[in-house]
Design brief:
Helix content: over 70%
Structural class: mainly alpha
Strand content: under 5%
Number of strands: 0
Oligomer: single chain
Length: 204
């Protein structure tokens, strides 16, 4: 993932030279790639999501499930989730499957249902991603900010929020979010935040 992030920075530099329009696109690409370096191209499975329920967890070191894997797993997840709505692990996997298959409305329903029972900053961040992709930036921003409030040490919401703000031309707010993240997340999770912050701040 770090190699991918490095490559993205090169793409960003080239795009910046192309002019203002390229700069906005480049910044978005950089922040998205940095978020991927922390969370994976698709949402990573947490330890509880890989421990029980329908088999999904890849072996250690293996890449996350592909769209084909999610499509193959979905019917089984739906079956288990319907049989036991209280099985939180399966419900989380089901939401991930819906999201990674582009079934965003269904993913949002599951995330909102889970969050109504118990607050979870990881799920709140994922709801933010879902709302963002559904074209609801205000809802996404609120979700990211709530995730940060609930767990200030969690890096992905800072990156996702900064990227969302940057898309809206709210540069100073995006930088402030990344600065907050650098100050609050553990040292081992700060590299992507610092790279995003340094790029958005520009020279000097």
């Amino acid at each position: 993932m770090l190699v991918a992030a490095g490559a993205a920075i090169i793409v960003v530099i080239v795009a910046v030279i192309a002019g203002p329009a390229g700069r906005d696109r480049a910044a978005t690409e950089l922040l998205e790639s940095l978020a991927s370096a922390v969370t994976g191209t698709t949402d990573q499975l947490t330890s509880d999501e890989t421990s029980t329920g329908p088999t999904l967890a890849p072996a250690t070191g293996r890449v996350q499930p592909s769209e084909k894997d999610w499509a193959a797993l979905l019917p089984r997840l739906q079956e288990v989730a319907a049989a036991d709505p209280g099985d939180v692990t399966t419900q989380r996997k089901l939401a991930l499957a819906y999201y990674n298959l582009g079934r965003l409305d269904e993913a949002a329903v599951v995330y909102k249902r889970l969050l109504a029972v118990k607050e979870d900053p990881v799920l709140r961040n994922r709801l933010g991603n879902t709302l963002r992709d559904l074209g609801d930036p205000a809802g996404a921003e609120a979700a990211y900010r709530e995730a940060i409030t609930d767990d200030p040490a969690l890096a992905p919401p800072y990156l996702n929020l900064a990227e969302l703000l940057w898309r809206q031309g709210r540069d100073a707010e995006a930088l402030a979010v990344l600065d907050e993240g650098v100050a609050k997340v553990p040292e081992e999770s700060r590299a992507a935040l610092r790279k995003g912050r340094d790029f958005l701040a520009g020279p000097g």
